[in-house]
Amino acid sequence: MDLSFIKWMGHASFILNLNGKNVYIDPFMLKDTSLHADLILITHPHQDHLSERDINAISDSRTRIYVPKDSVAKIPVGDVVGVEPGKHYSFGGVEFDTVPAYNIVENRIHMHPKESKWVGYVLDIKGVKVYHAGDTDFIKEMAKIVTGLALLPMGGTYVMNVDETIDAAHAITAEKVAPMHYRMLLGKEGSAEAEKKFLANVKNGIILEEIGEPKYSFQ
Predict the structure, then answer these.
(1) Where are the alpha helices (DSSP H) in 131-182?
(2) Which of 18, 41, 44, 111 lies 20 to 30 angstroms, CA to CA, from 97?
(3) What are phi and psi of 27, to 5 degrees?
(4) 91 - beta bridge partners?
(5) pLDDT 10s digits, 143-196
(6) Backbone angles phi, psi at 57, to 5 degrees
């Protein structure tokens, strides 16, 4: 699978070049803001996923921004559309579906409650599919995901830990599975150990190269 169309910008932030359009997902602490955003997808309103500063830096009035309905008012610029799980959307030749993203583990269920209706995204253009899970635990809806590339959080505390991410990777039908949302949480040594365990237990697992110098804390 050719992954030249996607770049990991750190944490849960990605840029995809699809059909000549720059598609950002959860832009946060961007090291390079030179590429204008044609389309931005926001999974939920936490500061490390909905960053007004980063959205401002890459957007203008032409930018279409999709965000959960409870967070529309937080978007500072652009043409904003509220989304909810289980819907199909289309913009400029980019097709995508919203899927649920929520916690079920007791000690973090309040962080991403199901009733908030926050989302992950499955993008599809010309047969290329990418699933960005958002902030979530290993949930039953993942068994229905069929994709080329699955991007799964692996940080623990707020989302799945390494073992749960491995279980999720086995449940999803994907050509490739890559972890995200873990380096800031686990630090350099913890991230290395997590990656090693992930790759040893997920046959179709890969580690995407992070653009720029990895940032291991919010400082």
Answers:
(1) 162-171
(2) 111
(3) -65, 130
(4) 94
(5) 999 999 999 999 998 999 999 999 999 999 999 999 999 999 999 999 999 999
(6) -70, -25
Q: How far apart are alpha carbons 179 and 154 in whole angstroms? A: 6
Separation CA 180–CA 101 (nearest Å):
15
Distance separating alpha carbons of residues 116 and 168, to the nearest angstrom: 22
Structure tokens at 38: 């044609």
What single-letter amino acid sits at 158? Y
In one-letter notation, the amino acid at residue 55 is: I
Predicted TM-score of the model (pTM): 0.95
CA distances from 118 to 1, 27, 29 (A): 29, 16, 21
Candidate CATH numbers 3.20.20.60, 3.30.365.10, 3.20.20.80, 3.60.15.10; the one for domain 6-201: 3.60.15.10
